[in-house]
Each structure stands twice: as structure tokens, then as C-alpha cells.
Amino acid sequence: MITFDAATGIFHLQGKHTSYFMQKNEQNHLFHLYWGSRLAKRLPDYVLKEIKRASYIADTDHIKEYKLERLPQEYPAFGNSDLRKPAYQLTFQNGTQISDFRYTAHEITKGKPGLEGLPSLRESDDCETLIIKLHDAYQQMDMFLFYTLYLEADIITRHIELKNTGTTAVEINQLNSACVELPSSDLDLMHLSGSWARETHIQRTPLSQLNYRVESTRGSSSHEHNPFIALMDKEATETAGSVYSMNLVYSGNFEATVDVEMQDAVRMQIGINSSLFDWQLQPGKSFVSPEAVLVYSQHGLQELTHKYHRAYQNYLLPPKFAQQERPILVNSWEACYFDLQEEALLELARSSKELGVELFVLDDGWFGHRDDTSSSLGDWFVDRQKFPQGLEHFIAQIKQIGLDFGIWVEPEMISEDSELYRQHSDWCVEVPGRLKSYSRGQFVLDLTNPAVQDYLIETLSELFQRYDIDYVKWDMNRSMTEAGSNALTSSQQKEFYHRYMLGLYRVLAKVTEEFPEILFENCAGGGGRFDPGMMYYMPQTWTSDDTDAIERLAIQEGTSLIYPTISMGAHVSQVPNHQIGRVTPLNTRGVVAMQGNFGYEMDLSALGSAEKQKIKDQIDQFKLIRSTVQLGKFYRLAVPNKENAKAWLFIDEQQVVISYVQIHAKPNSPSKRLRLIGLEPEALYQLPTGEKRYGDELMAFGLAIDTVKEDFYSQQWVLKKEEDA
Ligand code: DGJ
What we know:
Elements: E1 2-5, E2 10-14, E3 18-24, E4 30-37, E5 52-53, E6 56-57, E7 88-91, E8 102-110, E9 127-136, E10 141-150, E11 155-164, E12 170-182, E13 187-193, E14 201-206, E15 211-215, E16 225-233, E17 243-249, E18 254-260, E19 266-272, E20 279-281, E21 286-288, E22 291-297, H1 300-315, H2 319-322, E23 329-331, H3 333-336, H4 342-355, E24 359-362, H5 390-401, E25 404-409, E26 413-414, H6 419-423, E27 443-444, H7 450-466, E28 471-474, H8 496-514, E29 519-522, H9 532-537, E30 540-542, H10 549-562, E31 568-573, H11 586-593, E32 597-601, H12 609-631, E33 633-636, E34 645-651, E35 655-662, E36 673-674, E37 684-686, E38 692-694, H13 695-700, E39 703-704, E40 713-721
Parallel strand pairs: 23-24, 23-32, 24-25, 25-28, 28-29, 29-30, 30-31, 31-32
Antiparallel strand pairs: 1-2, 2-3, 3-4, 5-6, 7-12, 8-9, 9-10, 10-11, 11-21, 11-22, 12-19, 12-20, 13-14, 13-16, 15-18, 16-17, 17-22, 18-19, 26-27, 33-34, 34-35, 35-40, 36-39, 37-38, 37-40
Helix pairs in contact: 4-5, 7-8, 10-11
């Protein structure tokens, strides 16, 4: 519930287990008081007064006597007596950059307004929104700080709206979506970093007096960094300690910064990347920042994960798919790459069906004359050489075999060798007269241009209308370079990256609204855009192009730290693995892929009968646990030697699924046990052996792990909960 106390000027956003306090003083400056565990009906009006830094007592009642730098700002400005990193920066017509926004009014309402043109969490029945209006009289501008509190989910979303009420244009150089100040830097910074095929590795770094910046400048949220940061107690663990985190609902260039200032306070912020952004805000116009999701956990990373998973599954994923189990698929990519031959594909489909697969996905190579990465992007019509009787005919046969049909597209791209390029070479992202860099042999379409957006909406609508399509994999395989547009004026060129995102979101909204029955999978060379922005439109994402089971352990652990496992694509692939050449047992590949949306990325028709039988058993097994994995609760388990093993658990009302993977065999290792969590202490659970144990025993003693002389060994247990224990 959100309250305001007029006597003290204190706002209190009180969630189920969390409190967030702000205070406005007599000068109408807005200060941040607290974000942390829930406090009862207190009004901590003494906090600001008691702030004493460098033997300076802040007397906030007398404007002449206080320096803003000494005090925790709620949304800090540039150019005043606070010389720390601001949350926003504007340049006015006269070239000056100082602003002074002060509180003028606020409103507390039920529900939540949407963000124009941008994805955001959908409202819940119990959410409330606080809108604080600030005004800068010098320039005649209004700023609106939006806070939505989700009571039960116990999270806060924030964004900013800036309105130019004056008569001259104002340049926005920076407008962060959220800023929070913490009083001390005795914390660790956690973020998710990596590269293509090595996404979302968890990084943890102790803070010192430095400016930290986690960012993307690649035009997408990127493989390099996910738009997420957390600050946590140095002692925080999986189950204990405070964690403060921010995740940006945005799929383009972002920055997440942490600044430890000279007196040890910490400012944590997230927003559009200001180094590649400037926006001309014309008189009478508004600008809306993307939404930031703020999640606090009092009990370590486990609670943090549960809060994100629950909020995203309930309020971010497209509602139709949020609680729907996902089909087991076979994808043609690693089975055939560009060598698509109709009969071989049908054979793959038949074998897959026999083994229990439900969805056949025709990946890259079906259109134009695309035999490698050098051509045809933009030509979304079937290659008659590969499918002589057309795609309808091929799809009809897939359906006759008894499988759903899915198709791959990469709509944001254009090949130089394409009909589209020959007709519209000016539709590329480019700076006219400058060389454009190829990447994967392709250019990017200029989605800032409404004509390109309309063309895409029309072309994709025709494609999805014409064919009987159940699933679409929407790929995006390059970073943006020489970023400019033929459709923008010179003063708008610095707006390119954000305008691209607005264009993309418009296309995604139109297409996904027109085809609500299609299951869309987001992909950007794997997890290059695994972010909440894309998740709003597309309920699942291809987590990584690296399908090696051991590499996937870290990637899936990092991804599932914040994103629900139902959104995470995970497939079994061939060995030696195509990305890194490692050979792992089929069982382990299966156990790891069963952590998300399960499928196969290999030629299932080319296997011997013994291997086929194993895969059939694997699929049967996944069908038994699918609802627990995709709709149940997820826990990471502590393992005896954590550098060398991973274990996790899914639980629902009926059963518990526990998976364990050991990376390397070690000599002389005594047998170890895996202690479970999240079980009902008094409930009786049946082990695969038929033995029965109580929840409290399983949480106290755990399950015995096999001691084996085998690298990449895995175990999976399914424990059935007894009805009347
Ligand atoms: C990158 C994707 O991540 C792969 O799964 C595959 O679809 C290729 N693109 C196709 O070009």
C-alpha cells in the first residue's frame, strides 16, 4: 500500500515484505530514505536530520545550510550542489545544463497506466501507482516519477516521463529509469555477463570507491551484459542477506551504474545508455523512459529469484502463454544447417514424432535462395528449389505426420543479395556515404523508418496468415554499427538507437496482437536479447547458441537467476558438440535441457535404435515432469563441491524433480548427499526406488549422490508426494 504523510512529507511504499521511503522537505526537494525489509507504520522523519557526513550536519529546513551532495537524492539532478552522478541531464536552448526540478504535486491511484510505445509489466489486481510531479520553473518543464507497487509480488516498477511545457526545444542527454541510494558501500555488485555462446555468467565483485558501469552499446541488450544489476551484502548467500536489484524492461542499449562516492554512499541506477543517446524534446511533447523493475530480497538470492519468476510469469509474459506448458520441439538448425532437403526433413519429422516430439521447427535456409549467410534476408518467400511444391505442401505433410509446425525468420535484417535490397537499398541502417560493415554477411533494416515498420508488419502478417504456423522463432544476428538512418533529420540521428527500439516494439506489438495463437520464440544469436522487453511480446527465448550441456550449466544458472525457466529454451544436441567439440552422455544432455523448454537440435532420424529408445524414454520422462519444471517453483541446491557440480530442484503440489550434474570425476571422493529445500516437512515423498521419506528428512539428510568414475555424470530424481501423509 502507498501512503503519504503531509506533516512530514514522507511517502511509504509498503509491499508484503518490503518498504520504500521517500521524503520531500519544505524546499520541495525529494530525498531517498530507505529501501529494504518491511517496516510497520513508522514515519522515519529523523533520518535526514541525523545524516552526518564529514562532520557536517544537514539542516534540511534551511536551504542555505545544506548541500544536496550530503543527502540521499531520490532522482538526482545535474549542476546543483550535488556533484555526484546525476540520474538525468538536459541541455536547454541557451546551452546550459543545470536543472532544478522540485515537487509540486502527487497522486496515488489503483492499478497501473501502460507506457506509451514501450513494454512494461501488466497491472495486477493489487497494484497501486504513485505519480510524483516535479517542475523546473526556469525552463518550464514537468517531470513525472512513476512508482507502481505490486503488493503481493512485493516488487516496485519505476519509470519517468518528461514533458516540455515551454516554448523551446530541450535536449535530453540522459534520463535514467531508476536511481536508488544506499548509505554504505560494504556491498558486492552482481551482474550477468559473457559473450555470444557464453551468456549470463554470474559475476560478483566487491565494491570499492569507483564508478562501475554495466552496459550495452551494441544496439541490443546484448550477449555481453544483461540489463540487470544487484547490490548485495558481502555475506549474502543463496538464503541469507539483503539483495537490491534492478532489471530494465528494454531490449536496446542500456547502462546500469553503481557509483561509490567519497563518503561511501552508493548510487545505483539503470536506464537507456546515455553515451549513445540524445533526444530533442519539442515544446508540448513528452518523453517516456523504459520501465525498471526493482526487486529487494531480505533472504538472499533464492528469494530474489522467486520474486522475479513470479512477477514475470504473472505480469510480463503474454498472458495466453504464461501458464501454458510448452511443446517439445525438434529444430532443423544443428541437424541440417542450410542443407534443407524436403524428404530428409520429413524423415526427421517422422522419426521425431515416433519418439514423442510435438513441434517441428524449420530453421534458417527455407526462403529466397539462401544456402549460406550471404543472401536472401528480407525475401520471405519460399525457396522452390528446396520445396518444389511450396511451403503449404510441406507444412501439410508435417501436420499429417502429427506435428505442429514452426518457422524461423530474421525480420530486422537485409542481405545485399536480396530482392528487398535491390528495391530498397536505402532501408539499411547506415550513414550515407560511409562504408557499412557486414556482420554475418548482412545489414540491419532501419526500423526507425515507419515505412520499413509498415512493410515488415505487412510482410509478416501475410506470411503468418498464408501458412498454417504454430510457432515462430524471431532471430536477430548482428550488432548495429555505423548507426544512422536515411529517414531521420540530422538533429534526430542521435535518437537512432531508441527510435529503432520504438519501431521494433511497434512491429512486435502489431504482429503478436494479430496472431495471438502463435507461440513466438525470441532469439538473437541465442541470448543476445534475453531481456524483459522482448519477454513482454514473446513468451520464450533461445537461451544460447551453445548447446553443450556443461557450458549450459553456467548460462542457465545465470539466466534463471531472474528469468522464469518457462521462458528459457534448452535443447539436447549432437556430440561432439558443434560449438566446443565436447562429448557428454545423452543422459546429461537431457537432464540439463530439462531445466527449461525442452527440445532437440539434432538429426533424430540418423540414430541407431538403442539411442532412439533412450531419447524416447527421455521425452516420456520430460512429459511426466514438464508441468513441474515449467509451472512449479525453482530452487538452486547447494552441492558438495560447487566448482565441480550443479544441482537444482523444481517442486509443485504433486512432485519434486531434482537434477544433479557433476563436471569432473575426482579420485578418492567419499560419497556425498544432496540436501533438498522447499519441501513440506511433514509430507511423505516416494523415491524412484519406492522408498518413502518425510520432507524434513530429505531437507536434513538429503539424497545420496552416486560416486562414479565418470566425467559429465548426472542424476535426476522424481519424488512423488503422497496424498495423505
Ligand atoms: C542463430 C540462432 O541462435 C540459431 O539457433 C539459428 O537459428 C541460426 N541463427 C540460424 O541462422
